[in-house]
Amino acid sequence: MTTRHAYVTLVTNADYAMGATALARSLRLTNTAAEIVVLHTGGVEPAALQPLEQLNCRLIPVEHLPLSEAFNQRHARANLHTAAPFTKGRKPAFHSPLDNFCKLRLWELTEYDSCVFIDADAIVLRNIDRLFAYPEFSAAPNVYESLADFHRMNSGVFVARPSADTFKEMLTRLDQPEILWKRTDQTFLQAFFPNWHGLPVYFNMLQYVWFTMPELWDWQSISVLHYQYEKPWESDHPKADRLRPLIDLWQAFYTGDDVPDIAAMANPKEAA
Questions:
Q1: pLDDT band for position 86 (cuts 50, 70, 90)
Q2: Which residues, 6 or more positions from 253, have their beta carbon under 8 angstroms from its beta carbon?
Q3: Which of 125, 128, 182, 127 has its CA nearest to residue 158?
Q4: Which residues of 14-51 are buried (b: 16+ CB within 10 A; e: fewer)?
């Protein structure tokens, strides 16, 4: 029997379709043999998905999870961000917390033996196919400000095994009376998989590390670069000056023009 693997991402609007295009192009450049699956919601126009079709991605339309109205109200953008505000960075105006839970649709992709989920605001810098052999549930720590965050998981990259039974159990656990998942899917997944397997931080390097912990940044090791908070395609990016090398790198992957040699790039201390 042939083992099937897939990289999976989620697109909920035209902005994230741009992100997914850069991600898919970066994956193609690693010569992966795995399929690239793009889950997309009703908020995405067909024209925005065209570049992904041209990159031979498998496009799968998905709906929001069948959750209670009370759950949806608690996790609506205004309510959630009031109850659990973001204080370290800015979430773009297009960000809708309820969209995040659509990631759990990955567990419905039972035609695959193993999947690696990657947020659409990330790019892959070298082949990471070995992750398909990692256990469920594997993810990297949420390190972007200090090493004290190693106990927290970041759900921008994770390894999972699709299963209808797991998906059913997730829906039951997710929608409990009065519960608030502060960081939506991320908080839920850490609770659902309390013994998650820790990946090295280089499999999900968060962009703020560039200026908060430059000693941790090593282009020779980074496999996935994740643009948490502000996005590299935003025109009014409040941290653009501080993150300019990373934004320029994303733009190169997005356009497909003059993608630099990662091995030749200078680390932040060297570039200073």
A1: very low
A2: 22, 25, 26, 29, 123, 259
A3: 128
A4: ebbbbbbbbbbbbbebeebebbbbbbbbeebeeebbeb
Confidence class of residue 270 from pLDDT cuts 50, 70 and 90? confident
Of the candidates 223, 251, 34, the residue with the CA atom closest to the CA atom of residue 126: 223
Check residues 85 and 241 and name the one with the higher pLDDT: 241
- Ordered domains of the chain (ranges, CATH): 5-271 (3.90.550.10)
pLDDT cut 70: percent of the chain above it: 92
Tokens of 202: 């280089």
**What are the residues whose beta carbons fall under 8 Å from the beta carbon of 176, sequence distance 6 or more?**
none
Q: Which residues contact 119 (CB under 8 A, 6 or more apart)?
A: 9, 10, 19, 155, 156, 157, 226
- What the block records as the tokens of 223 is 């496999």
Rg (CA), the chain: 18
How far is Cα 243 from Cα 137, in angstroms, rounded to an integer? 31
**DSSP strand pairing (35-40 vs 122-124):** unpaired
pLDDT tens, residue by residue, 114-167: 999 999 999 999 999 999 999 999 999 999 999 888 999 999 999 999 999 999
